[in-house]
## 1
Amino acid sequence: MKTLKTGIVKKHVGESIEQEGYEMRLIVERELEEVVALQGLVYSKLPNKQVLYMDSYDEMLTDMNLGAKIVGVFNQNQELIAYRYVGFPGYDDKNLGYDINLPHKELGKVVHLETTVVHPDYRGNGLQSLTLQQMIPVVKEMGYKHMLCTVSPQNYFSLFNIMKNGLKIKALKRKYGDENTGKEGLWRFILHRNLEPVSLLNPRELLKTSISDLEKQEKLIKEGFIGYWLFTESKELSYVRFDGALV
Ligand SMILES: CC(C)(COP(=O)(O)OP(=O)(O)OC[C@H]1O[C@@H](n2cnc3c(N)ncnc32)[C@H](O)[C@@H]1OP(=O)(O)O)[C@@H](O)C(=O)NCCC(=O)NCCS
């Protein structure tokens, strides 16, 4: 499999830090077990399980057969230390374009950033961002235009990395619930970036709100505001309303 990128990462070993080489490349089907194992390990160590909605082996395999791609980061011992899973929902109900009222003709150009995980020993190398940046030219080349994902309001490490890469908050709602069983969904921001250059609009109003004030943010989004930037220290989000609508 073609190498997408190589480099050096820091690994936390007890109190000290070691350096290791890494290779980024697309995962092949026989490596899917490793992906599921890494997801399980990361989930088991999460203090707040609400932030990660787990994908099963079968779901990922079906999705891969439909074209989904998983970028893996391997250390010098060829162990998987991080991955990013990218899916192409087409006109399926799960297309997040529906959640942000994307025009129907655009739905076929939607790419989903599904799960990303980084092994706890390798956090702080910017691997979530690096894998995302690596995938942008790949999906653009394939003709995709709208990058969308969900992020938990409680997952500010992930939210910061996603917003840093130009995705904006366009909706806030409960996702992954089940009407039949009455299972309540998990709160998720829905973020979007148009991968093609968009014309600049004039910001009309700008304000800040605490990331934990979901009610206020729901109201702002209904009024046409877009979540623009996350201030990590204060855990506040800036919301902007433009003259005209951004697609
Ligand atoms: C979200 C996640 C992928 C980010 O990993 P990453 O790319 O290594 O993060 P960054 O390199 O941007 O980290 C920046 C800083 O935040 C810290 N950090 C990142 N994730 C952290 C976490 N979950 N808990 C505590 N600190 C964390 C890093 O150690 C680093 O600190 P430093 O600057 O002092 O070195 C990783 O935290 C993770 O796997 N979380 C669990 C799964 C998840 O929530 N995935 C996203 C939803 S699908």
Note: The helical segments are 32-44, 57-65, 127-141, 156-164, 214-222.
## 2
Amino acid sequence: MGWGWIGALALAAGAVGEGLGETFVLPTANRALYEPGQEDRYYVGTVGQPWVTGTFGCVRTRGQQFHEGLDIRCLERDAAGEPVDAVRATADGEVMYANRRASLSNYGCYVVVRHRIEGLEVYSLYAHLQDVRDGLAAGWTVRAGEALGRLGRTTNTREPISKARAHLHFELGLRASDRYAQWHQRNRPDTRNDHGEWHGHNLLGMDPAWILLEQARRGSHFSLLEFLRRQPELCRVLVRGGTFGWAQRHAALVLPNARAAREGTAGYEVALAFNGLPVRVTPRAASEADLSRRFQLLEVNEGEAQTRRCQSLVVRRDGHWSLSGAGERLLDLLAF
Ligand SMILES: [Zn+2]
């Protein structure tokens, strides 16, 4: 069976199934996300755990471990019990990366696609694929709903993914750095990076389920930019320096500040979501900020820090909050 055929079929199904004018479509034929009470038909939980462990957030190991995407259940299997569902691009975009060597990543075989939405560069990632569509490679233009590969259970972890738990791991995120490969080499020389810029650590996730459901609810009024700007902050940090990589890459998330515009930007005030995704960035002038340190923690949202603690970007010692090692590392990557 040729991939062209599956691709055309999936494209048609996507166009019919999702209606017109929506930015994001479901990445597989499973539509149970839109059926309240049917979550266990949409998500695959971890071994022996409920479906919620297949959602996005601090959902694993009693809230201590972050899951950065959705684990989506397959609908169809072949005679051997292997999944056959097509995995489709969630929006129009360009393929950035296709890893066909499952042994090189805990994502197994995976594909990364870039989308341009409301002035943002947004990335989608599709992991544990059984196989990647023939010929699919960086530079390919894909339409929303177009097939990228087949749902599977590939991974390089010691524990294989069982047939029963075969799923698509689906992420939506923004890119932390344009120079991840260089940063990785310098800061994590003990670990291999076979994927250049397309290492999972270079994508900062947002909740795809929330986005898809909000889009379904609000139709053409849905705005991804609004969604990001409204994310609750874990903390606000002042980053010293007149340039901040993230702000240059994501100008749509930068808020205006007349004083910095007039006097010059000496630093950036950055609001981080619980997982380190910068959701609001404000340039600061030297006259309105204490720039004695490279990263200065300004404020912590205690509610958020206590309820969503899996990334531990801030820590409390003797009643005082400070950036953790992980927090400092993340900011270093964002500023690199
Ligand atoms: Zn997953």
Note: The radius of gyration is 20 Å.
## 3
Amino acid sequence: MLKLSSTGRGGGYSKKRGLVESTLAAMYRADWPARAWGLTRRSCAVREIHFGVSGREPGRPPLTLGFVSDLHIGPTTPAAVLDAAFDALAAAEVDVLVLGGDYVFLEASPAKAARLRSLVERARGRLATIAVLGNHDLWTDHRVLEHALWAAGAEVAINATVRLAPPHDDVAFVCLDDPWTGAPDAERALAGAAGATFRVGVCHSPDALPLMQRAGAHLFVCGHTHGGQIATPWGPIVVPGRVGKRYPSGRHTAFATHLFVSRGVGATELPMRAWARPDVALITIS
Ligand SMILES: [Fe+2]
């Protein structure tokens, strides 16, 4: 089936992209690329990135976060790599699970939505599970994905702030819509952050960094770049987005904001990664 425009609320879906994705959807029938990639065990290994960020009020107990992004359930992501990522998150038993968007590659089918639900259910946060949407989610029927996330117990936060009960009521998760294909509105999101002395920014893309800095985010977690997906030992070749080019993956300090850009888990377009190992982050905020 030829798809030449976005079937969700997301903009920025060009005819060229439509032609490429329609061709790939026909070529990748029955998910054979994901199955082939899944045969190489090494490519399915997921790196756990552990780090801590301080700055909370004295006397507050530490809060643990799990962050995972860019699952890209579909024909270019092996089932084993998704299982490995969510097994690692489940084993960590985090307080808050944060999902960075791009849950699918190509259309959001009921089967992909069911898979998303079962993965998230496996690793739900003890206190909360928070999700934003990515460009690939907004180019398809994102409502199917939102329903799967809700059914799994996640809060889908678009231009909204999520707060926790005491003793973690000093922390606010400021969640923005995707800057490329959606409509981020920091002012609206911040309405719920009053009184929070530690702000965690959550958005699919690092391009929200200027908005997060203005929102006073102490920590900003995002994905989208895939670390270039197919990179070289010297660095990535192509990275999307202006901020992503500067910070293609990993941890950075940008003025007062601690930035973490995940390489994500799955793949788009080509069923492979090189020098861009899938990752999940396990973060302690104290
Ligand atoms: Fe992605």
Note: The chain has a mean pLDDT of 96.
